[in-house]
Design goal:
alpha/beta; six-stranded parallel beta sheet; 38% helix
């Protein structure tokens, strides 16, 4: 921590000292005129990933935080820099990403006078963060920074905004007394659970589903969720943001719930008698899709009261979902109910049948794709899976063709970083850079549309020389495929509303550290992906642009009736 009795030439030096003491080694951002921050980062040995767009800086920081489970830092200027980053703040909040945003601000003496880039930034950011604060005096720099770090890490984790006005930023910071420290985490072993409605519902269930939310990311060490599901014989689903929290090769895993679920998985949902939701929010895409949510009790567990939905009947538990699962597993191990065991085995058998049916659907889809011209997205996902050489992360968008990557078992295993329910354009394209910084030993692939690629293109180019290693797979449909599908569904004129312009893929990026290819030949697909992976393994950035057909859509989306048939 910052040492008592130390003097700092400016606020940034004191703040950076606190960041170093708390394990921060990377900062993302596009600072304003106050480049003293860069001097402080250099002196402390912290790395800045420079950005061209404040939104992308926030997306990178969010990707870093989600992948690592650690604090990410994003540096901004003031005024329009903050409003430009607002979309990224919204995404970080919805994703539960621990991001500390450091922003400049007009000095106190200029407030209300029409100062350059003056804005009530705390008022703007408060709805988008867990805590927003303007440091009003040099003596408050250190306590305010410690508070910001504490609130960002939570629980629950989320973004915080700290404004350092120019007059405070340039003042000498003197630390005279003992420095405040971050809270000490108290690791409590889960003990026997007190009998209650949640445990009673779990014990009574014969056809349960376990739904894993994004809050279980970094909370499923030793596979506690899989062991709990195995004890119940429960089908295991995730929300989109929860994907990667459990082992997708586990025999009870059935994919993403709701909108993205395959038909056999939806049949399981329609016949279950209990849903156990772990650290999720039960967002719209989870509870709505091709099959209505079953009228069964829902046991919800969440550490954040705001994550407990009031829309469903059933017990709600305010707790760490990991500890709840451990306690319930211990209680279930004490049960000796032969009838329950028989029912559990029967339900697990139905799950196995559904998984087999889903695997056969994939085989049929790949066989169909082989007869069609051009590279189909299912073939592309199969090639990415077949060429993966080690630990890997797929960073996704939420466009029409991109959503193939949400479909199980078209993609199986590996980590996953997805946008929240807000689905901002360009998130995955930029977040992949932060993910790679957090996991340099992983193969990081951004599976994105051409609209998202263009939104992040400048930052991909500028970070490639020093922060490369990401494989970009760009699905090119000439614009916004989801909007064009909705236009077609309503019978609107494509010339009047040109959401897509099929044709040439987006322009390439230049540079010896960037490998760009357009993929059209099925026979060469695997070799092209392997060559791109080898280039990335040497620190380069690879961009594979793949023209896609408008009708190349995940079957679950057709089944849900959200795109034209």
């Amino acid at each position: 921590m910052t040492r008592a009795g130390r003097r700092y030439t400016d606020a940034w030096s004191a703040i950076v000292d606190l960041l170093v003491a708390n394990g921060v080694d990377t900062c993302f951002g596009l600072p304003g005129d106050d480049l003293e921050l860069l001097r402080a980062l250099d002196a402390a040995g912290l790395d800045l990933v420079p950005c061209r767009d404040q939104r992308n800086a926030m997306y990178m920081a969010t990707g870093y935080a989600l992948q690592s489970g650690r604090l990410a830092v994003c540096a901004l200027g003031k005024g329009p820099a903050v409003t430009h980053a607002a979309t990224g703040l919204l995404e970080a909040r919805e994703s539960g990403a621990a991001v500390l945003v450091l922003a400049a601000g007009v000095p106190e003496r200029r407030r209300g006078s029409g100062g350059f880039q003056e804005l009530d930034q705390v008022a703007v950011t408060t709805p988008l963060v867990r805590w927003a604060h303007r440091v009003g005096h040099p003596d408050r720099v250190v306590p305010a920074t410690v508070t910001a770090l504490t609130r960002a890490m939570g629980p629950p984790a989320g973004p915080v905004f700290l404004e350092v006005p120019d007059d405070v930023r340039t003042a000498e910071i003197v630390v005279t007394g003992p420095c405040p420290t971050l809270p000490e985490p108290l690791v409590v072993e889960s003990g026997p659970v007190v009998p209650g409605p949640a445990l009673a519902a779990i014990r009574a269930s014969r056809r349960p589903v376990v739904l894993v939310g994004g809050g279980m990311r970094h909370r499923n060490a030793d596979g506690v969720v899989e062991r709990f599901a195995g004890r119940l014989g429960a089908a295991v689903f995730t929300t989109a943001s929860g994907r990667g929290a459990v082992d997708e090769r586990h025999p009870l895993f059935c994919g993403v719930a709701g909108l993205y679920a395959a038909a056999p998985a939806r049949e399981l949902w329609s016949s279950c008698d209990l849903v156990v939701s772990l650290a999720g929010r039960l967002e719209e895409t989870v509870v709505e899709g091709g099959t209505p949510w079953p009228p069964v009790p829902v046991v919800q567990v969440n550490l954040d009261p705001g994550g407990l939905s009031a829309e469903f009947s059933g017990p709600r538990v305010l707790a760490d979902a990991r500890h709840a699962v451990l306690s319930w597993s211990r209680a279930l191990d004490e049960d000796r109910d032969a009838e329950h065991a028989d029912a559990t085995e029967a339900w697990a058998g139905e799950v196995a049948v559904a998984r087999k049916a889903m695997a056969l659907e994939v085989e049929a889809e790949l066989a169909r794709a082989a007869t069609l011209p051009g590279i189909r997205v299912a073939e592309l996902l199969a090639a990415l899976d077949a060429t993966a050489g080690g630990p890997r992360v797929l960073v996704q968008e939420n466009g029409l063709q991109d959503m193939w990557s949400y479909g199980f078992p078209f993609r199986v295993g590996g980590g996953s970083i997805v946008p929240s329910e807000q689905t901002p354009l360009g998130f995955g394209a930029a977040a992949a850079i932060g993910v790679k910084r957090a996991a340099p030993g992983h193969e990081v692939t951004a599976f994105i549309g051409d609209g998202a690629f263009l939104a992040a293109r400048a930052d991909i180019a500028v970070t490639a020389p020093a922060h490369g290693g990401v494989l970009y797979v760009v699905l090119c449909n000439g614009g916004y495929g989801w909007l064009d599908a909705q236009r077609a569904r309503l019978g609107l004129d494509a010339e009047l509303y040109p959401f897509t312009r099929p044709g040439a893929p987006p322009p390439v990026l230049d540079g010896s550290d960037i490998h760009c290819r357009v993929l059209c030949d099925k026979a060469a697909l695997t070799d092209e992906v392997l060559a791109a992976r080898r280039f990335c393994s040497r620190g380069g950035t690879a961009v594979l642009r793949v023209p896609v057909a408008p009708d190349d859509i995940l079957p679950a989306l057709h089944d849900a009736g959200v795109v034209p048939q």
